[in-house]
Amino acid sequence: MPTTYHSLIGHPAPTITLPDHNGETYSLVPGQNSMPVALFFYPKSGSFGCTKEACQFRDAIAEKDTFKPGKVLIVGVSPDPVDKQRLFVEKQKLTYPVLSDESGAARAAYGVGRGLLGLLDVARVTFVIDGKGILRDVLDTTMNYGGHSKFVARWLDRLEGEIVDAPDRAGVPTVNGEASSDVDEKSVPKLDSLVVATVDEEPPAAPALAVG
Fold this sequence. Notes:
Layout: H1 5-8, E1 16-19, E2 25-28, E3 37-41, H2 48-63, E4 73-78, H3 82-92, E5 98-100, H4 105-110, E6 125-129, E7 135-140, H5 147-165, E8 174-175, E9 178-179
Parallel strand pairs: 3-4, 4-5
Antiparallel strand pairs: 1-2, 3-6, 6-7, 8-9
């Protein structure tokens, strides 16, 4: 049964090995160096929408703190051959790896199919992978090329917030990295004012205080 990207969410992201725009072998190993990854698949290097999308990621790296080198790895993938990828990277002055997936192996690994109701060979799909190598979310929208860098920006803010909040979870029992309520309370130190927020929940609001 073919992989679908929905089935990958919440699981370790696949490792892929492809030639980059210089023809050199490039292996993307999610979770390596504990750095988040934004992996975006796009239909065609040099086309209007794909150029806009690629340049928005380039500009984000130059302008936004959360996109700075060392904080996230941006990787672009399309079915174009190496020679075309090299020209695309040089012309647009892209500052991140752009990989050639002529065989479709990477698309198959990530469950990326055709776009625009089958009119395009490849859909425009972006994956966010956290520093542990877990695929957290995906955006599939071929027409909205401008939404992909914004999608990644929101997720980078969220992942950075999770790192900042991590010390607040010290002493909370975990199962597979998540807070668990199925642990003997006697074995856990009691913390009177501890509030734990899961990934998909907002912390509860503080109770209102009556005045007067």
